[in-house]
Design goal:
single chain, four-stranded mixed β-sheet
């Protein structure tokens, strides 16, 4: 066994144990605080709702632990189990290198999809249904899966073909050209998503509540913000969870509300939630996150450029026939193992943005209304109010409920 193989296996074992330990801590911490609502929420959230959130969180955490183990087995099966090499041997008879590469990527992608599908079904029809959140029918689930597969092929295959061609034909700077293609592809996807992709999965209708529209229009005017329109999405078709988000950019910007959110919140609470989302745009969080993604992708592509022609990289991961497609696959299997320790940095950066957006909302709407909206969402979505701090530091893109509410209440006061 090579030195890199030993290094990778050690990192894989350490990362897996860390993920399992974090999940175990989180489940125990939430369960230990199950029987008492935190003081900050005692007047707003009843004990039975708090206990439901705790049970839901523990169940999801146990499921996440199972997925960690499944993903590890899948990585080992593809590498040292010889599955990737078997696929490479199977596609070696194809004449053109580009066709061979696309076929190899397709086989691995199909394998990952087939492995994930039963777990997605169990999450939807067992876990979510157990706590009263699922509204998806088997028919809708199957149609969604088929649409996602078709989209993955329609959008992913051309992109993969261009990347493979650049890796072969563009010389030592292929990774820089590929980065440019990747950026252009993602920006195009952001532009077309609201009008072409999202409607394939959900129905979007104009917001008909005139009073709410007037309130939102006034907020947008105060904030100097223009959008293409307000839309209500039939989120209740699949889940009872509520949400709101911005989508697109430039002239395609739209505000989308889940119908479950409109039904649950009052107009002033919807306004406060929207003010928070506006804060992300006004404070350039979206641009900063895009820059973060593009900057990290440039670094990763450069690293792949150093590994693509390194025989020890393939040999250390159980592949005996190097190729550009195999390099791509192996790289995406390896990167999460070596970068997980940096997760707290990304999570902390995201939580910083959430605090800033809350502050913006408190300045342009009523902080108390945002507090009441968040409390309702925590309750309705069964979000735990007592996450394990260490687990939260690794995984949570939003601040813990108690800390977030405390800051908003201070702003309201």
């Amino acid at each position: 066994m090579t030195a890199f193989a030993l290094l990778f296996l050690a990192a894989l074992a350490a990362t897996t144990l860390l993920k399992l330990a974090l999940a175990w801590r989180h489940a125990r911490y939430v369960a230990a605080h199950r029987d008492r609502v935190p003081d900050a929420f005692a007047t707003d959230i009843p004990l039975d709702a708090h206990q439901k959130a705790a049970d839901y969180t523990v169940a999801r955490t146990h499921f996440a632990m199972l997925l960690v183990l499944v993903n590890v087995l899948l990585v080992l099966w593809l590498t040292y189990g010889g599955l990737l090499q078997t696929y490479a041997d199977y596609t070696s008879g194809l004449d053109r290198p580009l066709v061979r590469g696309l076929a190899l990527l397709g086989l691995v992608g199909l394998t990952l999809t087939l492995v994930e599908l039963p777990f997605d079904a169990w999450r939807t029809f067992v876990l979510e249904a157990r706590f009263g959140f699922n509204r998806t029918t088997p028919k809708v689930f199957g149609i969604d899966a088929a649409k996602q597969l078709v989209l993955a092929i329609a959008l992913g295959a051309p992109l993969a073909a261009v990347v493979l061609w650049l890796m072969e034909a563009a010389g030592q700077w292929w990774w820089l050209y590929t980065w440019g293609v990747w950026m252009a592809f993602n920006l195009l996807l952001l532009a077309v998503y609201p009008t072409w992709i999202a409607p394939l999965f959900n129905k979007f209708s104009p917001l008909t509540d005139e009073a709410l529209k007037a309130r939102i229009a006034d907020l947008l005017k105060r904030c100097g913000f223009e959008v293409a329109g307000f839309q209500v999405m039939d989120g209740s078709k699949r889940s009872s969870h509520g949400n709101a988000y911005f989508t697109g950019f430039g002239r395609t910007k739209r505000i989308v509300f889940f119908d479950t959110l409109i039904e649950r919140l009052t107009p002033v609470e919807v306004e406060a939630v929207l003010a928070h989302e506006l804060g992300h745009y006004r404070l350039h969080h979206v641009i900063k996150r895009i820059a973060w993604i593009f900057g990290s992708s440039l670094l990763f592509l450069w690293a792949l450029g150093q590994l693509k022609d390194a025989d020890w990289f393939y040999a250390g991961l159980g592949v005996t026939t190097p190729s550009t497609a195999a390099a791509l696959i192996l790289f995406f299997l390896v990167v999460p193992v070596f970068t997980f320790l940096f997760s707290p940095l990304a999570a902390a950066y995201s939580r910083k943005h959430e605090f800033e957006a809350d502050q913006y909302a408190a300045q342009h709407a009523n902080a108390g209304d945002l507090v009441s909206a968040l409390v309702k969402l925590y309750k309705d979505n069964a979000s735990t109010l007592t996450p394990d701090p260490l687990h939260s530091a690794f995984y949570d893109s939003h601040p813990p409920a108690s800390l977030r509410i405390a800051r908003l209440r201070a702003a309201a006061a």
